[in-house]
């Protein structure tokens, strides 16, 4: 049996040096014992340690070194032996650390997890107390970590409190920060830290007030804030009293009779929201129409939409362009044709020499119809009945604007504008004259964006651009540029 | 009115803020005070500095600027008609308390909300001013969560996002109609618009790779909201549908569910009873399934009865019991998506299984090493030395996995 005497409880370098030599020499884990502290035998036990200089060096992964550095901070006595056993087994199974169902690997990971948790809890539960003012100002905490995580965790406090002079005192060592560097010192006693702080009473007041007595769940509290930490948490002294009073406080609230309303109430109350349902409102103007859309409940699409998207444009625009419905972006911003489809439209308008601001832009359906998949909203085509119900508003828009020409982009818009279904490919590009003005059907920009066949996308886009150029010419808005010679 | 001392104010305004369940201090971009003049750091993971006996964490100094309010929301302790004692902090009092608490390592930062006084704009301005002083005058680099007053001017919401790590506006009730009854001055449409503005603004602040000058950060910790459970009659399925819609629409980090709790001086139009904690717990589990396990709201609803989640068993198990034909799943060959649907297997366990099986064919014992309770998992999986046989389809499977214990809603203490 080899006994290796380490310099301290967290002597990682000593362990690594000894482990390296022992493994090179071929000493099996069962024959090695790592000890710390006094009186456990000689530095390297009875047998001298092998000389590592003439041995072939070997490599271990960074993952193992990182794991070992954490495991060594654990308080369990067998941690050094466990690590040597892992090191030994890595010779034969280099991928061992990935096999997390292995008992040794599990044990090491579990220890590392406990250490990491202890470090996290130290970040949470250290409580500084202030001494001195001005240049003498210092912040001192007394803390007892669950594992030996002082040095591992101190840099966190240096980053967070870079401009404070602070010390964390523990029974196994101390950490000090002076604004420039971190130093570590010998163990301290609780009496070395200040025993009070003026702000602690405020903290306790806050802690007691933020507690909801109707939700008493002490086990949940203790699993996250174990009792071992309570001695150094000023707020913990309130816990017993808070628990004792909780049931009584809740009963009092539950059994209380409803009180008279506050008499100041009537003087300070805000106005109630206007929730008038305006589904059948006959608008007297475009403005009234847009206002009424907020209260439209003609179909259920309003429920999951952010807002209705009203038409925009001059009151007497010669050209009205109607799309299908707002998309994700339009729903959020409240403006029509803002997303990718809007960009295609803008491109075509520009090519046709049409000023977007001179056109009245609107949609057949005013609310965004969608389904949620993987936390994204995906467009869904509105149903015939949704289009029909929303036509109420589009018909009024047409009546108010009285455009020379209405361009219906896509099947939904065409159905709404014409009152019946048409095949877009068959009817596009033709000027259809009707009692309420002329209509031109074309593709919806989304069709151009989404068609799976790139050749079809190019073809459809060319036709779409040509259709808008025609619309520009017919409505008198365009320059006629880009107009095909037909 | 007599001037209240600061501790009394703190007591009133912390009590008034505690019904907001949000506590997260995570998601901010990494920063620390080593190149600054003040204090503070955020390193991605939030820290809970204390826990109160209700099991909730104390991460932020969660307070209201004031609990005076001109809104009369029936479920709220601060509604205008309540006789609760009122108080109001000065802007500097909040700033000083935040810094004093932060320097002592009590908190990760500030969660500031407020009752609405004078006007929505005035209230929001005051809240933004607290955040501005912390950031600009004191170079505070800890966490700031600001509650949005949705009715406030979009310019103020814009400013709030520049100073805060997280923004939130509470929807509170899943049905707009219920808000009309219980919160006459609140408008769900306005809240949704504000959340829409925040999402658009967050997306605009995401730097493109080619951007040389990065746009100013805007609420890098995202936005969240809260739904109250049990104040109106909305069933669980409706709550989940609303959540799915909110996650999809506004890119929310979290939807918090808050079991409606009795409050002092409570309104006559609401039932006052102990909060439905188990129901709240099941909703959080269902929410988790939507966010991390690839479940949709309608799928989870398949395991519910009459629109309500089963209180006795978790929603994944309830779903699986209805979908037995999809089981058992072979842990050595099943893909990640399928394994995530196995009752008793969490995200971590599934990832471990996938990693280990590259080197080893898993036996039941191996799976046992990788999960918490193999007994819950056993009926649903196949391993090298294990097949559940008829167990998956056993009529009494539910009783075997979850021995019948009626979790009395009122006695969960």
Description:
- Chain A: Belongs to the uracil-DNA glycosylase (UDG) superfamily. Type 4 (UDGa) family.
- The complex is a heterodimer of chains A (486) and B (413).
- Chain A is 40% helix and 13% strand.
- Chain A has 17 helices and 14 strands.
- Chain A has helices at 12-25, 62-71, 79-92, 103-125, 150-160, 200-209, 218-224, 239-255, 265-268, 286-293, 328-333, 340-351, 384-401, 410-418, 424-427, 445-450, 454-475, and strands at 2-6, 32-36, 129-131, 138-142, 166-170, 173-177, 182-185, 319-323, 360-363, 370-373, 376-379, 405-409, 431-434, 437-442.
- In chain A, strands 3-4-5-6-7 form a 5-stranded mixed β-sheet, with helices on one face. A 5-stranded mixed β-sheet of chain A has the order 9-8-12-14-13, sandwiched between helices.
- Chain A is elongated.
- Chain B is globular and about 70 Å long.
- Among the domains of chain B are: 1-168, no CATH class; 328-411, no CATH class.
- In chain B, helix 3 (120-137) runs parallel beside helix 4.
- The relative contact order of chain B is 0.09.
- Chain B has 15 helices and 10 strands.
- Classes of the chains: A alpha/beta (486), B alpha/beta (413).
- At the A-B interface, helix 4, helix 5, helix 6, helix 7 and helix 8 of A face helix 1, strand 1, strand 2, strand 3 and helix 2 of B.
Q: Can you tell me the CATH architecture of the largest domain in chain A? A: 3-Layer(aba) Sandwich
Largest β sheet strand count, sense and barrel closure of chain B: 6 strands, parallel
Total of DSSP H or I helical runs spanning 4+ residues of chain B: 15
Within the largest sheet of chain A, what's the order of strands?
3-4-5-6-7
The helix-and-strand class of chain B reads alpha/beta
Side by side, the strands of the main sheet of chain B go: 3-4-5-6-7-8
Question: What are the secondary-structure elements of chain B, in order, as H or E?
Answer: HEEEHEHEHEHHEHEHHHEHHHHEH
In the predicted model, the low-confidence regions of chain A spanning at least 5 consecutive residues are none
Contiguous uncertain segments of 5+ residues of chain B: 407-413
Separation of the first and last Cα atoms of chain A:
100 Å
Largest interface: A-B, 95 and 105 residues
Task: Note the overall shape of chain A.
Answer: elongated
What is the overall pLDDT average of chain B?
Answer: 92
Determine the mean pLDDT of chain A.
92
InterPro entries (chain B): Aldolase_TIM (IPR013785), DNA_rSAM_put (IPR023874), Endo/Exo/Phosphatase_dom_1 (IPR051675), rSAM (IPR007197), rSAM_sf (IPR058240), RuvA_2-like (IPR010994)
Protein name (chain B): DNA modification/repair radical SAM protein
Keywords (chain B): Iron, Iron-sulfur, Metal-binding, S-adenosyl-L-methionine
Cofactor (chain B): [4Fe-4S] cluster
